[in-house]
Amino acid sequence: MNLEKVIFGFFIVLAATLNFGFFVGDIENPAHHDVYELFAALVVSLIATVLKFGDRTQIGAVHLSTSLVADLQLIAAAMVWGYAAHVGGGMSPEMTARVVSLSGGALFANVVSVIILIAETIMQRR
Amino acid sequence: MQQALARHHSIFLLILRRMRAPLILLIALFAIAVLGLTLVPGPVVDGQTSYLSFFHAFYFISYTATTIGFGEIPYTFSDQQRLWVIISIYLSVIGWAYTLGSVFNLLADRSLRQAIAMQGFVRAVRRLREPFYLVCGYGETGRLICDALDRMGLRVVVIEVDENKLGELDLHSYAADVPALCADAANPETLKFAGLTHPSCIGVIALTNDDATNLAIAIAARLLAPRVPALCRAERTATSANMASFGTRHILNPFERFSETLALSLHAPKASQLFGWLTGLPGSHVEQRRDPPRGNWIVCGHGRFGRLLVDAMDSEAVPVTIIDIDPKPDGIHRWVQGDGTGADALHEAGVLEATGIVCGTSSDVDNLSIAVTARELNKALFVILRQNHESNRALFEAFESDITVVPSRVIAHECIAILSTPLLAPFLDEIRRRDEEWCGELLHRLTHRLGWRVPQIRSQRINLSRAPALYRRLMRGETITLERLLRSPADRSMALDCEVLYLDRDDDDHVMTPAPDEKIRPGDELLFAGTRRALEDIDLIIANEHTLEYILTGRDLPGGRIWELLAQRRRKKSQPQLP
């Protein structure tokens, strides 16, 4: 067992689960989507990205790119939320749907990340 | 190669990897501060406890953590919030300090700076489009050769293992940019980065002061770039034999070279003078020094240098007495135990009856001490001094020795001669084979015409790219002799101040010192010796149609298309065409 691998896997899976937690629920209903969960998902996703820095292998490169996609989507979601809550005058169902759908995109990227992680583990057969 | 490059020089990835920990710490601290700020109850507004939203919390922490500080928004903070802000400020200061510290540490990091320098070097070498020489070792010899190559307008790439020596390269002003790398040239990977396999690489020159490294360079050049000629320095006979075994093109052994020269000057002073005149530094005067006399010789120090000189004297049947700390009596020579710096050992070796002495130990101070003592005992002594370090030059110049052997300069001269005129080497080989009388005559003829100043030596091939005008004429079947060609472009009744020493025919045939009426054939390679001015004139004559016409016929060719057409018509009318 390798502590580095544990931390790495932990953050990738945690990013995906948090993202999923935020995503599930009625897409237009602000009550179903907790902004703290979005914050947690964003922070964990950023940390997961930094953990993937500097890996020279091909699979590491794909890991990094999926993570960057997830970050981008989550940052966009957070920005839309900030705009809606403070500039646009409250979370309307329309704005909620936008935020959630952006996080849905990030979820997809995170799922790809998890799949790569699993594939990598299976490939190594150790 | 590409893969190796990527593996070696992904600086960006290196930075990212090193920045992992500080970045994660920064993100975590930011997240904790922002999260905490949203959870801490704020002031009571309109009867309700207000909380900071993520938006405001992120805004606040961003400008607080970066020490910008705009004040408390949207309402003045409650004391609980202020308590948390105090904590977050100190947390974030730690985070930033650590991150910035890591960044500066990284930039000052030796391995990173090396990686950056390496990448710059590899890029510079890859972008070279002109022919260049790869010089390994930037010592005294390396500097002399780089200077000469730079003056010849050739590009140079330098590898040197000592950082201090490489620093001198920056101080030296070269006409062209010289990419340089601080690395061990014995590593084939390094040689590849330095352009050994680059299509524009026209030669490798191994001049490090370590024989093993030079050997490694020679074998790497032989295997990785067989078409690239290698010039390698070898100070041990075993090394040069080893290099010769796998076909190194030129092996430069300063002591061997000097002992050959000494042997030559012992049995053929004229040939030796001719040698000196041909291979000196262009423009310098050759002193008509006295030749090493035959008679009893004393050799101090039986090391690499001494041994070779003793061999050279043996082959000339000159009696030798050897002074060495550790005598190895061999029944042929007289051995004296001692170090030669004192008068006793010199007396015992018979310095009063000797005609010459070789001060050939590996210590400069010892050599000078021997020389001074010996001269005091016997004024007429012919002194050969070995100078090991360039820094002692002033001392050696102050003592008037007959010959001072400086290994670095011996190599540099030979190297430059080989590089600048490939045809000189076979010519010099021929001279060694000729007899003394022939050499004397040639020397007399050449110095009579060109003076005692070392001439410029250049080889020139008569082909379409180098000598288009002459080549076209020859291909049309015209007969041109050397005598007709070597005329001054200003006045064709005057001969040029230059001589053709050697003529190399396409079909492996050659002519030594061709006679004036020797016919030139297309594809010939000629070795010229002459003044700089004359060699420039030759370049003009063989390349320029108009000059060549004037030289051969005395007619000035009309320039321009229309005048050419008119002139052709006139000539056709006036000259009856032969069948």
Task: Explain how this protein is built.
The complex is a heterodimer of chains A (126) and B (579). Chain A contains four helices and no strands. Chain A is mainly α and 126 residues long. Chain A has one domain. In chain A, helix 1 packs antiparallel against helix 4. Chain A starts with a helix and ends with a helix. Chain B has four domains: 2-107, Helix Hairpins (Orthogonal Bundle); 127-252, NAD(P)-binding Rossmann-like Domain (Rossmann fold); 255-420, 3-Layer(aba) Sandwich (Rossmann fold), CATH 3.40.50.720; 455-572, Alpha-Beta Plaits. Chain B contains 25 helices and 18 strands. Chain B has a six-stranded parallel beta sheet, with helices on both faces. In chain B, strands 11-10-9-12-13-14 form a six-stranded parallel beta sheet, with helices on both faces. The radius of gyration of chain B is 36 Å and the shape is flat. Classes of the chains: A mainly alpha (126), B alpha/beta (579). The A-B interface holds A 35-36, 39, 43, 46-47, 50-51, 53-54, 56, 78, 81-82, 85-86 and B 7, 10, 13-14, 16-20, 23-24, 27-28, 30-31, 34-35, 38, 53-56, 58.
How do the helices and strands line up, and which of them pair or pack?
The complex is a heterodimer of chains A (126) and B (579).
Chain A: H1 3-23, H2 35-52, H3 58-87, H4 93-124
Chain B: H1 2-9, H2 11-18, H3 20-39, E1 44-45, E2 48-49, H4 54-65, H5 79-107, H6 110-126, E3 132-136, H7 140-151, E4 155-160, H8 163-171, E5 180-182, H9 188-193, E6 201-206, H10 211-224, E7 230-233, H11 237-245, E8 250-252, H12 254-267, H13 269-279, E9 297-300, H14 304-315, E10 320-324, E11 334-337, H15 343-348, E12 356-359, H16 364-377, E13 382-386, H17 393-398, E14 403-405, H18 407-420, H19 424-433, H20 436-450, E15 456-461, H21 468-475, H22 482-485, E16 498-504, E17 510-512, E18 525-530, H23 532-543, H24 545-553, H25 561-574
Parallel strand pairs in B: 3-4, 3-6, 4-5, 6-7, 7-8, 9-10, 9-12, 10-11, 12-13, 13-14
Antiparallel strand pairs in B: 1-2, 15-18, 16-17, 16-18
